[in-house]
Amino acid sequence: MAKILLPGLDGRLASYALTGTPWSAPPAPSQPFNRIVLSAAHVVANPHADIDPATGGAIDWDATLAYRHYLASMGLGIAEAMDTAQRGMGLDWTTALELIRRTRASLGDDNVPVFNGCGTDHLAPAAARTLDDVVAAYHEQMDAIQAVGGRLILMASRALAKVARTPDDYLQVYRKVLAHAEQPVVLHWLGDMFDPELAGYWGTDDLTAARDIALQVIGESPSKVDGIKISLLDAQREIDMRRLLPEGIKMYTGDDFNYPELIAGDAAGYSHALLGIFDAIAPAAAHALAALAAGKRQRFLDILAPTVPLSRHIFRTPTRYYKTGVVFLAYLNGHQQHMQMLAGHQAMRTLPYFVDIFRMADAAGLLRDPDDAVARMRRFMGFYGVAA
Predict the structure, then answer these.
(1) Which domain CATH number covers 287?
(2) DSSP string, 176-191
(3) Separation of alpha carbons 247 and 223, rounded Å
C-alpha cells in the first residue's frame, strides 16, 4: 500500500495511505455508447520554450496529441480548442487553429467525433464597436475551421457581451452567424462563473429570460443547430431547458457538478455530454458509459458517484481556474512530465487545493499508478518547500 506524508492547512505533515483501486483502461467499447460524449481536452505546455508567459506560451504538440489519442482510445470524442484548452486564457486563436488542424490530421482517420471551438477571441472586446464587428469575427473563425472540415461549437463571445445592448442584438448576430454554418453547430451558453466577462449573456441577467432567447435562436434556425451545451452548474435549469428544445435538438451537459444524473436522464429525456471533467476522469467515465449503454443505469451512477466530489472541488470558485486541477491530474497520471501551463496558470490554485485533489482522485480510483503518483506528488510538493 502506497503511503505519503501530506500537509494540512497548518503545514503539519500527516501520513496518508492510498486506498483507491485504480480503474483499468477500458477495452474498446463492445457496443456504441448511447450518449454522444465529447471530452473537452486540455493542452500540454512546452516548459522548454523561452516565451513570456504573459503571451500564453508554447504547446508540446506530441504530448498534447498523445493525450487526445488516450481519450479517443476509450471511446470519448474530443471537443477541441475549448475553455479546457485555456481558450482565451493562454491559448490564442492562431494557436487554437493550429491545434484544430493538428488534431484533425492526427485523429481524422479514426472515426473519432471531433467538434471545434469557434469564437471571436481574436477580436478584443475593447476593440469591438458594432454587432457587425462580432459577426465578422465569428465568420473569420468559421471559415478557417470549416476550410479544414471541422465541425463547430459556437462559443459565447466576450465581444458580443460587450457591444450588445438588448436580447434582439443577440438574435441579430446569431441569425447571421448560423446562416454561415455549413453543418449543424453546437451552441455554447457559458455561465459567468466560468467567464465573468460573459455576465448577462443573451441580453439579460434573468436566466429564465436568457433561456428563452437561446430557445428563440434555435427555433429560428433549427436546421443549423445540432444542439446546445449549457454550463450553468444548475441541474434543474438544464433539465427545464432540455424539455423545451425543439424535436431533434440535443442538449449537451456542461454541468461539471451534476453530470451523472443529467446524462442518465429521466422519463422525459437525457443530456449528451460535453464536459471538461471527462478529461480528468476518462477511465471511470468510459466504464460508466459502457454500463449505461448496456442498460445498467445504476451501475453507471455508482461508478461516477465518487468522481463528483473530485469534480466539484476541481471546479470550485473561482471556477474559471478549473483547468489547473485538470492538468494536475494529467501530471499525476504520467501524461505529462511537469506541472507547467500556458500563461502560468499552474499558479492559480493553492497547495491545499492540490492536496485535496490527490486524496479525492485516490478515493475515486483515478490514480492509475499509485506509486508513481506518490513520487510525482512528492516532487510537486517540493516546489512548495514540503519535504515529504
Answers:
(1) 3.20.20.70
(2) HHHHT-SS-EEEEEE-
(3) 11
